[in-house]
Design brief:
Citrate Synthase, domain 1, 370 residues, binds acetyl coenzyme *A, single chain, 2 domains, Cytochrome p450-Terp, domain 2
Length: 370
């Protein structure tokens, strides 16, 4: 058995393991589609509508979106027991860790705890989408010794999150930006965290357990945790004039520039292109160019040193300009990955449901070597 010749693809690079109807990526042309719709064309929709599209496979009509949004708004609150759990958390952790704990606890409180039918999972999934922003905002406020802010049913998914987080209603552009960020973060084919949710679902474990796998995997700095790392890099650089030297040091020490590079995109990530434009817009509106300029200087240096001089396709990925936008929205680094998860959870749910619908246990092999 040990002598069998097998091809090993480290990191499963370019290995296709399943078919999906949920999204597709063209890593050469830089195109991302959700259910056949280019992401550029989905930005005029609400996050509610995009999450519906991902989970149900169609853009909702007026009646459908009205019922779905109503349910999402109704489910936004979190029970007293979940708030108590947040109070017991270590406040030095990232919000991501609190979110993971809460999802685990939430599974115990869910009225459909033992119902793993399609309908039961849709109800549980809707509650997860609704409550993620509330959990993250509540943890942030408890940690900062502030009163928790109750959700406002008159606000969109994104605007309500900023309201619960900061205690004041966001401006129009801020609301537009956070909604766009949730949409751009929602889905990305078989990325590592989504794959991990499908692995867990393939054992026929429950929805909450699969989501916890996704959260645990998204947290790593090579994946969604890069968003926090970019924010920390922006802080460390602190003035645009220092960005070039910072990047040159990283490169000469053979360190990664966080928020750059991608396993699938060998060109500019289409999500980063959109976020960059939005970051520019908010920098102008807030008359605060600093963070945008630091980001531009980082990008220009990476482009000159890695793309032009060394021919490596290292472009900004989804996390880079998202981190810049978070800086303008007063989202702290400790919150960054959990804010990514607020968007991504609907993609995870869509994939878990797709896995259940046509399941085969995911179980690859490893070649034993001495
Ligand atoms: N900075 C500098 N060099 C880089 C970077 C980077 N960010 N990313 C890749 N490279 C270089 C590597 O050093 C390597 O060079 P070499 O061939 O001379 O050794 C080459 O590009 C290929 O790198 P791999 O690690 O083999 O590429 P892989 O596809 O495995 O990595 C990854 C993809 C993990 C995203 C990588 O680009 C990276 O570490 N980026 C920084 C972290 C990050 O931003 N992650 C978020 C990705 S998006 C998301 O998950 C939501």
């Amino acid at each position: 058995m040990g002598d069998r010749v097998v091809e090993i693809k480290k990191g499963l690079e370019d290995v296709f393991v399943l078919e999906t109807k949920i999204s597709s990526i063209d890593g050469i042309k830089g195109i991302l589609e959700y259910r056949g719709f280019n992401i550029h064309d989905l930005l005029h929709l609400s996050y509610d509508a995009v999450s519906y599209l991902l989970i149900h496979g169609k853009i909702p009509d007026e009646k459908e979106i009205s019922a779905y949004s109503h349910q999402l708004k109704k489910d936004r609150g979190i029970p007293e027991e979940m708030i108590r759990v947040l109070h017991t958390c270590n406040f030095n952790i990232e919000a991501m860790d609190a979110l993971r704990t809460e999802v685990s606890y939430m599974a115990h409180c869910d009225p459909d705890m033992n119902d793993n039918s399609y309908d039961g999972n849709i109800r549980k999934g809707t509650r997860l989408i609704s409550k993620f922003p509330t959990i993250v905002a509540a943890f942030h406020r408890i940690r900062n010794n502030q009163e928790i802010v109750a959700p406002d049913p008159h606000l969109s998914h994104g605007a309500n999150f900023l309201y619960m987080l900061r205690g004041t209603r966001p401006g129009e552009l801020e609301a537009e930006l956070i909604e766009a960020d949730f949409i751009l973060s929602a889905e990305h084919e078989l990325n590592t965290s989504t794959f991990s949710t499908r692995v867990t679902a393939s054992t026929l474990s429950d929805l909450h357990s699969a989501i916890i796998s996704g959260l645990s995997t998204l947290k790593g700095p090579l994946h969604g945790g890069a968003r926090m790392a970019v924010m920390e890099m922006l802080d460390e650089i602190s003035v645009p004039e220092h960005a070039e030297e910072h990047v040159l040091n990283l490169i000469s020490n053979k360190q990664r520039v966080m928020g750059f590079g991608h396993r699938v995109y060998k060109t500019y990530d289409p999500r980063a292109k959109i976020s960059k434009e939005l970051a520019k817009k908010i920098a102008e509106e807030k008359h605060e160019q600093k963070w945008y300029e630091i980001a531009q200087n980082i990008e220009n240096t990476v482009n000159r040193e890695l793309v032009e001089k060394r021919g490596k396709p290292i472009y900004p990925n989804v996390d880079f300009y998202a981190a810049v936008i978070y800086r303008y929205l007063e989202i702290t680094p400790q919150l960054a990955t959990s804010v990514f998860a607020i968007g991504r959870v609907s993609g995870w749910i869509a994939h878990i449901l797709e896995q259940y619908a046509d399941n085969r246990l995911i179980r690859p092999r490893a070649k034993f070597v001495r």
